[in-house]
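Dear support,

We are seeing what looks like truncated structure output for some complexes. This example has two components. We would appreciate it if you could run it in full and send us the complete token output so we can diff it against ours.
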Amino acid sequence: MSVKILLCDDEVHIVRAAEFKLARAGYDVRCAADGQEAWEIIQQDPPDLLITDLQMPRLGGLQLIERLRQRPDTNGLPVIVLTAKGFELKPQELAERWGVLAVVGKPFSPRELLHLVESSVPPPAAATTAAAGAMPTVVGGAPAGPAANPTAH
Amino acid sequence: MLWSTAAIGAAVALATAAPWLATWAWPLRFGCQVLVIGAVGSPLWLMRRRASREAGIHPSLVRFLSVADHEMKTPLAGIKAYLELLADGDADDEATREEFLVGISSQTERLERTIDELLELVRGECAAPSRSLLEVNVGGENCERQDLVV
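Here is the complete output from our reference environment:
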């Protein structure tokens, strides 16, 4: 069983580029155009990792994460935030309050995003459905790799 | 700077540590106290005012910068991501390469439009200062006003 990644962003080109890179690496990537669509997908078939934008129509990324954290069956889902609002965010607060693994600022590098994903979930071939058990530790609350500097767009 | 420091020091000495001053000298002592308060208080007040000006960025400016930042970074993200995929040789077939190039093109045009709109806004504000929402200091070549409004 492959690792399931849910990509949530209302920008089609960003979704396409990230999806292409992750799928090419062997991950089972699904896409949602906003938080509401992502929430519906998660309820039907929980992914092993969620990568989400924050500013989206219908349901924003933080509202989506808040919903996830309120439900016992989804509160352990690892989340990476992919956003152009990096300079307004405090990765430490996102990690502590929302359990966000990392914040990746846009413009982003698909290569670095893939590295971050590889360090956050098991390799594509070794997937299990126990995503929560595979949740990596947030290093110092500050995201590693590209998330370490969300303002370095 | 040296002079003012010396003057303040002398005033402090006279105002606070001069019990030897005769009764008749109280106006001098009082004057020194006023001088000390003025000399120390004025710069502090000015510094605080300057700090609040610098730190207290107008909420409208923050909102404007936030929107402009987001609107420019979003298409740039698509361009950068597609370029990296192409440069890394991830696009194996011609159709995918074409798709990414079309994406780069559309996002470049979007970015160009956003920049044009921002420039148009700035030009409009230069020409029509009455549409003031927020004062910012901009030293642009095409704008004679220092207090540009956005």
